[in-house]
Structure formats: structure tokens, C-alpha cells
């Protein structure tokens, strides 16, 4: 039996949704993570500081009593976001960061941004006050192949933002391509990226093994093996620019197993086990703590957590629970296509 003790991790990108789903999924994150950045793409989205505060309360109410957890709230940027309003919400610590969804890029992103120029004054304010910008980095043009949308976003949009505002703290979220790893590595010190467990674990074949696999559909969509390898290399390297953001994104099974299934993979339940296995397979367990518990805090100027967790490798592989069940509804739990021997000591 192998055992490692590491600093308790943070998840720099989660979707908690709201209502009954929120109550069911929040404990799956809080059992292992000390803090998380919470996405604002609710229906309707979180547009104001006060909405974020009320949402934060609903999240805190769902945290089991014996656990400590800090949700870091985000605002959803639209072309109408007011820079004074945003600044005030940030100063009052109602929000931690702002999220840029190109309109139509993903789940509940219809009110996102069509024309980047319209939000440049807001981004300038953010650069001035040190507020982080989180980006869903995909263009939405129908003419652009869905597998190329991240690369084209980097070339056409991200490069422009980085050059205009080198002081802005930017997280390119859930990166999926080799090009993204290269761009972020070579970019200025304020540009970092998050990587999800599912993009580290799967390539695009996983969407089509023996039939269509809606539970492996997410956005940005899974890419070729060379890209998965590049992500693994970035995550397990000693670069401080790449860290964990799970993008755990619950949808009810009926919304996934459908003629028009939703994008999103719910991965919080076994996230740390899967990551430990992936890092172990790469002989890179020495970088795991840095990837899940240190680099993100450093980028966001937060202290690293004081608590620790213990990961144990046993000779028996883990048997995954298939679903998170609640109120006669269910959410499919992400399970990779390899055996996992690591678990978190309870
Ligand atoms: O797969 C995804 N699901 N990607 C996103 O960007 C959004 C998320 C969701 O909200 O379901
Ligand atoms: Zn997301």
C-alpha cells in the first residue's frame, strides 16, 4: 500500500447549478476541496454582485456541517456589464472574478459576448483593479470546425486581449489543445490555464466507442490523442501556469441521453483518484500537489490551504458508483476507461 499526504486541493472551475441539483452536487466537491471558483452560467445568469451573494448563501447552505468550504463567486460578462458596478462588487468582495463566455459557445451562454470590443472598457477596469478574467476560449462561428474552435479563439481573440492588456490576470479555462499549452507557456506571466480531469483522461475516440457516448460530450470537445498527451505533459511539468479546474458540470441523465444532449461531464466524485492515477502512470506523482493544491492559489494571490488530505493506493482497483442519485433523479458520474487504484482516505 502506497500513501501520500498532500495539501488539501482547490477546484478553480466548478458548476454547482441551483436548487435540488446544487444540494446534491455541492457535497461531492466539498468533501475533497477547500475552495472552488463557481461558474455563473445559471438560468438566468449571475449578472450582479447581489445575485452572487445570494447564490453564495445557497451554496454555503448545502455544505455538510462537518466541512469547511469557501466558494469564490463569479460574474457573467455581457455587453451591458457596467464597469463601475463590477468594480463596486469586486471591492465589496461579492465577486472574485468575471467570466467571459463568447455568446453561444456552451451551456447557457446565450447572453455572453458577441463583440469583444464592447467589453474592452470592462476588461481595462479589471486589469486596473487586479480582478481575474476567466475565459471560455472558443469561437462560435458556424464555419469554424468544432474541433478547431479553441485554436482559432487563441489566434483571433485571446492574442488580441493579451496584447492590449498584458497586466490583466487571465485564466484560459479547460484547455484542450497542444496549441493552447504552447500559447500559455510562451505567454506573459499573467496568463495561465486550467485543465480538467476528463481532458487529461480521454481523447475524442471516447465520444464514439461502439456508438455515441453522450456522457463523454463536453465543451470544448475532446480532441485527438496528441492533444491529450500535450495536456498531460503540461499538467505534470513543473510549470506553474497549468492547474486544476475540473469543470465538473452536472446534467440530469435525461438531458444528456437525448437527441440533443447537453455538454458537460460530472467528475467531482472521483476526481482526485483519477488524477492521482494519471500522474502515477506518468511517474509524476511528485507534481500532483503542485497541480491541484498550489499553482492556482499562487496565480490568484491566495494562501495555500492549511489542511491536508491523504491519498492511498491499494492493490484492488476502485469500483466506481455509476450515478449520483437524488429525489428520483440521477446524474452520471464520470468514469475513465482505465483502472484506478488511488482513493482519498476518509
Ligand atoms: O461541457 C461543458 N459544460 N462546458 C462548458 O463550458 C459548460 C458546461 C456546463 O455548464 O454544462
Ligand atoms: Zn465550465
Outline the structure in words.
Helix 1 links the parallel strand 2 (11-14) and strand 3. Helices cover 33% and strands 16% of the residues. The chain has helices at 19-30, 49-61, 83-91, 120-129, 149-164, 178-186, 197-201, 225-236, 253-256, 271-281, 288-299; strands at residues 2-7, 11-14, 35-38, 70-76, 97-100, 133-135, 170-172, 191-195, 242-244, 308-313, 323-326, 329-332, 342-344. Helix 3 (83-91) runs parallel beside helix 4. Bound molecules: (4S)-2,6-dioxohexahydropyrimidine-4-carboxylic acid and zinc ion. Zinc ion is lined by residues 13, 15, 39, 247, 249.
Q: Structural class, from helix and strand content?
A: alpha/beta
The largest pleated sheet is described as: 8 strands, parallel
The general outline is: globular
Which strand order spans the largest sheet, edge to edge or round the barrel? 2-3-4-5-6-7-8-9
Relative helix content: 25-40%
Beta-strand residue fraction = 15-25%
Q: Which regions contain 5 or more consecutive residues with pLDDT less than 50?
A: none
Query: How many helical elements?
Result: 11
- H and E order: EEHEHEHEHEHEHEHHEHHHEEEE
Radius of gyration: 19 Å
N- and C-termini, Cα separation: 16 Å
Number of DSSP-assigned strands: 13
- Which ligands appear in the coordinates? (4S)-2,6-dioxohexahydropyrimidine-4-carboxylic acid, zinc ion
**Assembly annotation:** single chain
Amino acid at each position: 500500500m502506497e500513501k501520500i499526504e498532500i495539501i488539501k486541493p482547490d477546484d478553480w472551475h466548478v458548476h454547482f447549478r441551483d436548487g435540488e441539483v446544487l444540494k446534491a452536487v455541492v457535497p461531492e466537491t466539498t468533501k475533497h476541496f477547500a475552495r472552488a471558483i463557481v461558474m455563473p452560467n445559471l438560468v438566468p445568469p449571475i449578472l450582479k454582485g447581489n445575485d452572487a451573494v445570494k447564490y453564495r448563501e445557497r451554496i454555503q447552505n448545502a455544505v455538510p456541517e462537518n466541512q469547511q468550504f469557501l466558494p469564490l463567486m463569479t460574474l457573467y460578462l455581457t455587453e451591458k456589464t457596467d464597469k463601475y458596478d463590477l468594480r463596486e462588487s469586486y471591492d465589496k468582495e461579492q465577486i472574485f472574478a468575471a467570466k467571459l463566455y463568447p455568446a453561444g459557445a456552451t451551456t447557457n451562454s446565450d447572453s455572453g459576448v458577441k463583440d469583444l470590443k464592447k467589453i474592452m472598457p470592462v476588461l481595462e477596469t479589471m486589469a486596473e483593479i487586479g480582478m481575474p478574467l476567466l475565459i471560455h476560449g472558443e469561437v462560435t462561428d458556424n464555419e469554424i470546425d468544432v474541433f478547431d474552435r479553441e485554436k482559432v479563439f487563441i489566434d483571433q481573440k485571446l492574442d488580441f486581449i493579451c496584447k492590449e492588456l498584458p497586466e490583466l490576470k487571465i485564466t484560459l479555462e479547460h484547455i484542450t489543445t497542444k496549441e493552447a499549452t504552447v500559447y500559455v507557456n510562451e505567454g506573459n506571466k499573467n496568463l495561465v490555464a486550467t485543465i480538467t480531469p476528463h481532458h487529461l483522461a480521454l481523447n475524442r475516440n471516447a465520444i464514439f466507442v461502439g456508438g455515441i457516448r453522450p456522457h463523454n460530450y463536453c465543451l470544448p470537445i475532446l480532441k485527438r490523442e496528441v492533444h491529450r498527451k500535450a495536456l498531460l505533459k503540461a499538467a505534470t511539468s513543473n510549470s506553474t501556469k497549468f492547474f486544476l479546474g475540473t469543470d465538473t458540470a452536472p446534467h440530469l441523465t435525461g438531458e444528456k441521453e437525448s437527441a440533443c444532449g447537453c455538454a458537460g461531464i460530472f467528475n467531482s466524485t472521483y476526481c482526485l483518484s483519477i488524477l492521482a492515477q494519471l500522474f502515477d502512470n506518468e511517474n509524476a506523482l511528485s507534481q500532483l500537489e503542485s497541480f491541484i493544491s498550489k499553482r492556482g492559489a499562487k496565480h490568484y494571490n491566495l494562501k495555500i490551504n492549511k489542511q491536508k488530505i491523504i491519498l492511498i493506493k491499494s492493490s484492488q482497483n476502485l469500483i466506481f458508483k455509476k450515478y449520483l442519485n437524488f429525489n428520483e433523479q440521477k446524474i452520471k458520474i464520470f468514469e475513465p476507461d482505465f483502472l484506478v487504484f488511488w482513493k482519498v482516505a476518509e
